[in-house]
Amino acid sequence: MLSVMLSLTILGGLIIACIVFNLAQGSKSYPPGPPSWPIFGVALNHPKTEFWRTYADWGRKYGSSSGGLISFHILGRRMTILNSAADAFNLLSKRSSIYSDRPFATMAGRLMRREKSIFCLSYNDRLKTYRKLMHQSFSSTASQMFWDVEQEEALILVDRILASPQDLVEHLRRNAAAVIMKVAYGYPVTRNDDHFVAIAEEGMCYSRIQIASMASRPGKWLVDSFPILRFVPEWFPGAGFKSKARKWGQTLYEQSLEPHNWVKEQIRAGTAVPSFTSALLQPSDGHFVDAEEEDKILYTSGALYFAGADTSVSVVKSFFFTMMMHPIVQHRAQHEVDLFFMSEHRLPTLHDQAAFPYVNAILKEVLRWAPASPFGLFHSTASPDVYKGRFLGAEPQPDPRDYAFGFGRRICPGQHLAEHSIWIQMVYSLLALTISKAVDADGKDIEPEIAFTSGVVS
Ligand code: HEM
């Protein structure tokens, strides 16, 4: 009992010392922010869900007159919110040489042993290798090699929706999984309850909690503000975060390892289908991939499902929702698609994107209205920076695609793959389906609820 009390006293002393240290670090001049408590900062009034909405409100209320740039701290951890596209471009893109690190995450990184994951790495040589490998396959030109996969899967999707429209979301999830698993590992997903998809899904939804979102939620984990808490033993009262981190980290690692090993077996058996992983494991210059290189390949491929599945599903879901709520827009889009089909006597493909200005505009509108990643991912600075000292004036209306996928040197490497996959799903759905509200027993429309989930992916 005495030793527990002594430990608690020491821990309390260390926490206060950390807060004082953090606050001393943060005594420089930052943009304005919401009312803040001494020591706690905004920890007590920080929202638990849809925090981007509160940040936007705070920006309007307390931020600079243009752009709503605000800054605050949570238990000494400083955050600056870029509420306008202009500020995001000016800092994250134009000054990307210093704005491309990720903040050090004790929970989502060190404790979960995810330091080598692309989402945790700062802008170092390892990260540059990951991004180079992805760029080789997913640049605007290179990603065209996956168009056949995206088209085939979009047709399967529409077939399945026609067969059981009530399972729409399940079909969309299967589609995203099938595209990514084929692209990343050459693995064919045939069933909704596929084994590898189940592992990957477990990585995303552990006990119905999204690990990634939970582990990186601002203000959620005390250990992120006070990394010293990582030394608290797992059995210590209140140290449940440690066992969570261990289990979650293991789940995410297995999610990458199993399909990676499956590709290696296929290569050994001479049956490997060309894929992102198989190409990297058998380089065209014929050199032998050593353990260090293989580790990088494992982490790069592993990031694809994690980053690409939920985000793409979110956008296509929002597309279906938009079509259901705006039948006139849907009719106009269907008219564009039908006209093409009737005049060309063939299905449209991704080569025909330019012939569909209205569908393209809908995709932009969906990305603007319901961004899959409304908060993006945190960036942190490699060195201190002064931003003008004054704030910016009016900004032009940018293309939503210029910010829905992030910024600068950390911009989403899967943007082209995602956009093409979403586009072809939209076009084939418009061609084959009419999207409308469900009806009740009396034939009356059931009004759907518009609600977004909170987290890194909404
Ligand atoms: C509609 C679909 C998608 C959206 C909205 C989206 C959005 C984003 C955003 C906002 C970021 C953070 C960028 C930043 O830090 O500034 C990001 C990062 C990332 N995305 Fe995507 N993404 C999508 C699809 C994909 C796909 C299909 C893949 C893989 C094939 C992918 C792979 C990644 C990776 C690996 C990162 C981390 C990059 C880094 O930390 O350097 N994403 N994405």
TrEMBL record:
Keywords: Heme, Iron, Metal-binding, Monooxygenase, Oxidoreductase, Signal. One of its GO terms (molecular function) is oxidoreductase activity, acting on paired donors, with incorporation or reduction of molecular oxygen. Gene3D superfamilies: Cytochrome P450. Pathway: Secondary metabolite biosynthesis. The keyword Iron applies. It comes from the Eukaryota. The keyword Ligase does not apply. CDD domains: CYP64-like. Its cofactor is heme. Residues 1-26 form the signal peptide. PROSITE patterns: CYTOCHROME_P450. Belongs to the cytochrome P450 family. PANTHER family: P450, PUTATIVE (EUROFUNG)-RELATED (PTHR46300:SF7), P450, PUTATIVE (EUROFUNG)-RELATED-RELATED (PTHR46300). This is Cytochrome P450. The lineage of its organism: Eukaryota, Fungi, Dikarya, Basidiomycota, Agaricomycotina.
